[in-house]
Design the sequence.
């Protein structure tokens, strides 16, 4: 990078103050790099290889896997279950991340923007609590909440016997994941809203702008970068979220089988490691696209700054 | 109040005070209603966790408990409940120690010595760790653990989790290291201290908040992680609380709600306390860092 030419604010203090030297510096790097190489780089590369074999957990193909070329990929494309899963994943990401978490997170941050004191702490406390609790605990909390006969939700609504997890599995996990992940968006937008000059909002209000107009013309231009950051990160996380497995396990009849659950079932329960690896590779590619867009954007903002 | 007739022309900035006041009031009412609904939505699923552990006869419905502490005895009766919490502590502590130590060494080297292609390396690693998630690579991770004889090994879980957390940890710590002055290190060097001594006695005390941040972050990540131990550990004797919790409500027959509720509470408590501690001490908020 061209950084060396001029000192950039925030860049490292250049000279080697402790007299580490290249050799020792390399020694300091080795332990971390070995772990990263073995447990991140190798699995990623191996996915590509496994994806073109007919490797299985048990049986003949377990001992002597054969390279089958792109068979796994053509099979996946023709597979109804894979295409349905891809579509469900899209619904899950759009519904729970883009609309649910980002929308609700922004709304909460906006509603709390000029509040201090107990109400703000209470709301933020509960939203954050749902984010930090272990996923297997919150999964059971939602199973209990949505229980057909004795669930708290049905008791509150007075409609005992509504089987949310059986009749509306996708809606259930979308609402669950909205509940689970809104905290991150809320905090990010709370920080972003502090960048919006108070005087601009005041002026707009005095000019008679409605809330919607204020949002569109005053708030949004100031937080555009945050919105993009937020959407990319939560899409990436939601796309890789395994927690719905803990609630519906993909069921009933694969009606909530998002890609992570699908891979688990095909590869590790079903034993088709080769086919599962091909699906995993598709997931890695999707992750890569999202992450590259994000990094490019970071780079552009840094240049602009 | 006689001027209410003119309120229709809302484009007039001065002539419609009452309308503005009404709109302002409505906005306030709307805002509080919204916040109450939000509060209800986020609190409702958590109610059960607060009531059921202390309820005489816990059901899946959240209700005012007939208070008792007897349910906690169920924890002692189950052979795996308490030992799984110990397993979680072991996995979390092991991973945190490994991540903090390795990341500190690497971050220091990257901060103080100009390794060629350093920035590209850092961004590459960060990119890698965000796309190679446990979910997307469960197949090769399982396969790798199998080849390396790390199936049913807690060390395997620690190593895999550390590999995933290290890039971000290095990134965070390098930021901390970059902002510490190098003058102390220079004087220590003049007095003949070795690089490892400098690291231990000068750099570590200076970046302690950074190390604590990374440690807490690693513990929080491992404590809740379900997938990796679920894939790699076979028997219930080595399984951490995340996996035992899952087996308690999925495996066979009627779930024991006394056990489930008290176990959920006990398992959630450490992260909740950690969160309270961090937010009271440092404030749980995003400052400049995230918005880059």
Sequence:
């Amino acid at each position: 990078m061209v950084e060396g030419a001029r000192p950039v604010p925030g860049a490292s203090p250049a000279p080697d103050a402790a007299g580490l030297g290249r050799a020792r510096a390399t020694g300091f790097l080795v332990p971390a790099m070995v772990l990263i190489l073995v447990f991140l780089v190798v699995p990623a590369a191996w996915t590509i290889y496994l994806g073109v074999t007919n490797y299985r957990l048990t049986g003949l193909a377990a001992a002597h896997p054969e390279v089958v070329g792109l068979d796994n990929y053509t099979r996946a494309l023709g597979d109804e279950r894979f295409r349905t899963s891809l579509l469900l994943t899209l619904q899950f990401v759009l519904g729970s991340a883009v609309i649910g978490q980002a929308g609700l997170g922004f709304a909460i941050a906006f509603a709390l923007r000029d509040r201090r004191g107990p109400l703000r702490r209470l709301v933020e406390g509960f939203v954050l609590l749902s984010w930090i609790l272990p996923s297997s605990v919150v999964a059971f909390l939602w199973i209990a909440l949505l229980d057909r006969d004795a669930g708290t939700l049905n008791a509150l609504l007075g409609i005992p016997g509504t089987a949310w997890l059986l009749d509306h599995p996708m809606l259930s996990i979308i609402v669950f994941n909205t509940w689970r992940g809104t905290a991150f968006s809320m905090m990010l937008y709370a920080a972003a809203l502090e960048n919006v000059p108070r005087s601009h909002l005041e002026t707009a209000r005095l000019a008679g702008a409605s809330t919607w107009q204020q949002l569109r013309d005053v708030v949004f231009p100031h937080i555009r970068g945050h919105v993009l950051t937020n959407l990319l990160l939560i899409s990436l996380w939601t796309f890789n979220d395994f927690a719905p497995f803990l609630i519906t396990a993909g069921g009933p009849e694969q009606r909530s089988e998002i890609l992570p659950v699908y891979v688990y079932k095909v590869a590790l329960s079903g034993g088709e490691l080769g086919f599962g690896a091909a699906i995993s590779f598709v997931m890695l590619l999707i992750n890569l696209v999202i992450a590259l867009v994000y990094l490019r954007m970071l780079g552009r903002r840094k240049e602009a700054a | 109040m006689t001027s209410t007739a003119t309120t229709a022309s809302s484009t007039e900035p001065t002539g419609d005070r009452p309308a503005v006041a009404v709109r302002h009031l409505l906005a306030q009412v709307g805002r509080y209603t919204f916040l109450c609904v939000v509060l209800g939505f986020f609190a409702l699923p958590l109610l059960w966790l607060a009531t059921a552990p202390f309820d005489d006869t816990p059901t899946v419905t959240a209700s005012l408990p007939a208070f008792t502490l007897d349910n906690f005895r169920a924890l002692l009766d189950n052979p795996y409940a308490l030992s799984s919490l110990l397993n979680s502590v072991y996995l979390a502590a092991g991973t945190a120690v490994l991540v903090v130590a390795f990341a500190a060494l690497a971050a220091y080297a990257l901060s103080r010595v100009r390794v060629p292609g350093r920035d590209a390396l850092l961004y590459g690693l960060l990119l890698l760790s965000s796309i190679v998630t446990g979910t997307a690579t469960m197949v090769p991770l399982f396969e790798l653990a199998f080849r390396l004889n790390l199936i049913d090994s807690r060390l395997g879980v620690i190593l895999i989790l550390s590999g995933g957390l290290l890039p971000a940890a290095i990134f965070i710590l390098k930021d901390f290291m970059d902002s510490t002055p190098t003058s102390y290190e220079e004087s220590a060097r003049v007095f003949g201290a070795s690089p490892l001594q400098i690291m231990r006695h000068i750099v570590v005390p200076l970046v302690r908040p950074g190390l604590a941040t990374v440690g807490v972050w690693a513990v929080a990540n491992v404590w809740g992680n379900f997938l990796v131990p679920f894939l790699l550990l076979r028997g219930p004797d080595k399984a951490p609380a995340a996996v035992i919790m899952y087996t308690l409500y999925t495996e066979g027959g009627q779930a024991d709600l006394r056990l489930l509720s008290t176990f959920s509470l006990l398992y959630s408590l450490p992260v909740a306390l950690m969160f309270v501690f961090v937010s009271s001490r440092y404030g749980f908020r995003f400052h400049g860092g995230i918005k880059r």
